[in-house]
Design brief:
alpha/beta; single chain; Rossmann fold; 42% helix; 2 domains
Length: 283
């Protein structure tokens, strides 16, 4: 059966300025935009610090904060120039917007802007308290778009052919796979990985049913089951994707409540922090 192809026409890349701002998401977004002939919008977020009130040394504190803010603005301008140069070399149509302010506000504005894109591309966070987590969360829950969290451990890919799906039968997982197939029409193989021993999947959509649906779309659908053996699901999924040399991990976001994920850790937090393979998530 011939598979109907779609493709992304607009991509959004959200970058947070920090010490040693990573370029993995930017370069991955440029590679994907070049391959798809898509328009790329880069949103550069700058956290603007405010000097705390103190009766002693207020002027000195204000001066230090002003210097930090100025340096961040300069780095944002430098990153914008890098984006223009690399996108231009790749033949990618690009627009760049720099926004500064309290980071919660910056992240929310970035997510709203990303609604006019087919895919949102961001860098990994570095632990649950990193402000990049705020950017990822806003993108996932406020943009209404699939979010690609880019691993710094892999070079940019321009063509996605093999994906590993972390399957739990949820609506979020189904939506994530559908989003991946729309954004990456080059996908040929979908390996549906069920990790047993983590939660009861008796009432979930069976992986075999979803595999038959994918096969009717002209895809190679492979069913695999792995016993977690007490290990965290994200660790098993990450290791398996690396072993199989997958181009992408696809997963629904937040299998537990967001508070539970934050306090105790969970698949979403672990994958957005430590995955060696880039992860596409949908909510």
């Amino acid at each position: 059966m011939t598979r109907l192809l779609s493709k992304a026409v607009d991509l959004a890349c959200l970058v947070r300025i920090t010490e040693g701002t990573p370029l993995a998401a930017l370069r991955q977004a440029i590679a994907l935009a070049a391959a798809a002939g898509a328009h790329l919008r880069v949103f550069v977020g700058v956290q603007k610090l405010v000097a705390p009130y103190t009766p002693f040394g207020g002027a000195m504190t204000g001066s230090i904060v002003a210097e930090v803010n100025q340096r961040a603005e300069q780095e944002a301008a430098s990153l914008a120039e890098t984006a223009r140069a690399e996108a231009g070399a790749a033949g990618v149509a690009l627009e760049v917007e720099i926004v500064s302010g309290p980071f919660a506000e910056v992240a929310m504005r970035a997510a709203h802007a990303a609604r006019a894109a087919d895919l949102v591309v961001v860098d990994q966070q570095h632990g649950a308290l990193d402000t990049a987590e705020m950017l990822i969360e806003e993108a996932l829950f406020r943009s209404g778009r699939p979010v690609l969290i880019v691993s710094p451990n892999r070079p940019p890919v321009s063509e996605v052919k093999r994906i590993i799906v972390g399957w739990d039968g949820s609506a979020h997982a189904v939506r994530a796979v559908s989003d991946a197939l729309f954004v990456f029409p080059t996908i040929e193989t979908v390996e549906i990985l069920t990790i047993s021993g983590e939660k009861d999947l008796a009432s979930a959509l069976p992986a075999a049913d979803f595999a038959r649906h994918l096969a009717r779309r002209g895809l190679e659908a492979v069913l695999t089951s792995v016993d977690a053996k007490g290990r965290p699901v994200a660790e098993v999924l990450n290791e398996y994707a690396t072993t199989r040399k997958a181009d992408l991990i696809v997963s629904g976001a937040f299998g537990h409540s967001r508070l539970w994920e934050f306090l105790l850790g969970g698949v979403t937090v672990e994958l957005t922090s430590n995955a060696k393979t880039s992860v596409l998530m949908s909510y």
